Amino acid sequence: MLDSGAAVPRSYERRTAKMDLPECPQCKFQGAASVHWRAPRFLRCRECGTIFRDPFPGESELANYYREGWKEPEENVVETGSTDGVIARYLADSLTDTLALRSLSGMRILDFGAGRGAMTLELMKRGAKLVAVEPFGYKFLAELGISVYRDLAHLPDELTFDGIVSLETIEHLRDPGGVLAGLYKRLSPGGWLLITTPNAAGLPARLMGQHWREAVKPGHIVFFTPAALSKILEKNGFSQVQRPRWFIRYPRASPLRALLHFGLQKLAIDGGLRMVAYRRQTKLPTADLLAEQGGKRALPE
């Protein structure tokens, strides 16, 4: 036992200091973070580039925040989802073009973090077969006739999808990488993911800094640049990650603001980040490879 005048061993100081350092919610690296914004305080992980709130909120704190918002879902769109029918139509049109499809009819699609259901309903109108995941608004969505689950863990094990949409959701997640890994497992081979989130490298974020309107929202706890989001997608199995140039019209924007949005989107420095990624196709082994491995399995003709 050390007496009051004894020096504290350096190894103990190092261990104690490390325990006090924040852990990145994405890559779990502890210690390599710099201050990105001061009020509210966000740190930037030097390992993976994720920007995260500090102190990082707990599950119960976030749950209370969202439960309160869902008491009046139409009045609290920050907490319940700001995507409306007009934006959903633009996104669905753009997605169909990017996937080089004539339509989304018949596709099995998961809407993860469905909010008030604007995108879910839009895709259903186009003939897609939709399932939604929404932990706090599931009753609201069920009343709209949507098949909805509280979380991924409640989905039937055998249920997979041709595509997944996740609009303005990842910035709310305490474990973004873990969720992306779960979404990847739910995709059929060759399936696609559309993910949207605020752009931490966009001009609005650069100009406004800690006063950026996305940073001051209490439910926004992680942010990504295009490079950081691409990295996390690839780390969790996705391939062919791309950032398509979509021109989204915001219905409540004035003509001048709409023109500004168009210019920023054209330069890819707008406040929204939209990415499409894929699950790799499962490839059958070739006859030559089977011969090399001594395999005897018959290949389909």
TrEMBL record:
Gene Ontology BP terms: methylation
Keywords, sorted A to Z: Methyltransferase, Transferase
Gene3D superfamilies in the record: Vaccinia Virus protein VP39 (3.40.50.150)
Keyword Methyltransferase: yes
Alphabetized Pfam families for the sequence: Methyltransf_23
Protein name: Methyltransferase domain-containing protein
GO molecular function terms noted in the UniProt entry: methyltransferase activity
Key word Transferase present: yes
